[in-house]
Here is the input.
Amino acid sequence: MAGGGLSGAACSLILAVLCLAALSGLRATGTLVPEARRVGRAVGGSGLDLYALRDTEIFLASSDLAGLLPNASAGQIAAWAPGGGIMMPTQAFLVKWDGGAFLVDAGWGWRQNGLLLESLALAGVAPGGIGAVLLTHLHADHAGGLERGGRAVFPEAVLYAHQAELDTWIDGPGVARLPEIHRRWVPPAQAALAPNRDRVRALEDSGGMGGSVPLPLPGADMAAVFWPMPSHTPGHVLYGLTCGGAKDAGVVTLCLFTGDLMVLPEIQLPRPRVSVLFDMDPEEAGASRLALLRDMACGPYRDKTLILGSHLPWPGAGRVEARGEGFIFRPVADPG
Here is the structure.
């Protein structure tokens, strides 16, 4: 190029595209094996059990982190990942009871040699036994496992996603307005939903306050709800299972599925305002993450809330505690 260099904006865009390409090319570590770990038993006194399902585990080297954290310096990344990188797990979650089962997210699927189906089998559930999949959003590491070879992986499942998410990635005006660095997520999102379109149900809320998800849960006092958290993607949501009748001390009364509230928890828990490249509104993502972590760590229901995150350290379920300016994650013990 004349002038002997790229502009800062061009360099940032190239780095972002290279980072996306690198993530698409990475594969799960060779030592990973399928696993289904029960993280909640008879939740809220019901017959409902929760399982974490292993899908993938990807090592992100410092060079990968430089692309994912465009506002971080090389020195900061070296301090945050002193081992030369960090491991990023991806897991989905199974909720099952006598007569029913649903998933929260569906992992990478074939795009990263995901282990979700093998892990699901270890929990005693076949793909045809999944009645619903609750999608926190439509990035490939959450929706990629919905299809393989153009066929639906969970042929009986109703798929729930926020209307804003469908408008952004599938067939709305948001697709054409996407910034270049986010358009790479469009083809896998559309491929994931293509064989499932007749079973997709859009979640709509009133004034950003969320709403209910119509699932046939086993207890009359149980409900599935969602809350919009649109800073990661326009239709990113958190899901909750509430057990209103559980009053005993120590009994879980809320299971909160947080999706990509934290993509790199080793970095973002102690520094909640640090956002990643895939946060479409980075400033709001940091502010929302900080507010929600404070509530989960210090709020009145902190001891009765189980947090389940797609990229939290395996098994991805536990509680957060305040520490200094940030937070730490305490994985749940196996309930047996």
Notes: The domain at 40-58+89-331 is CATH 3.60.15.10 (Metallo-beta-lactamase; Chain A).
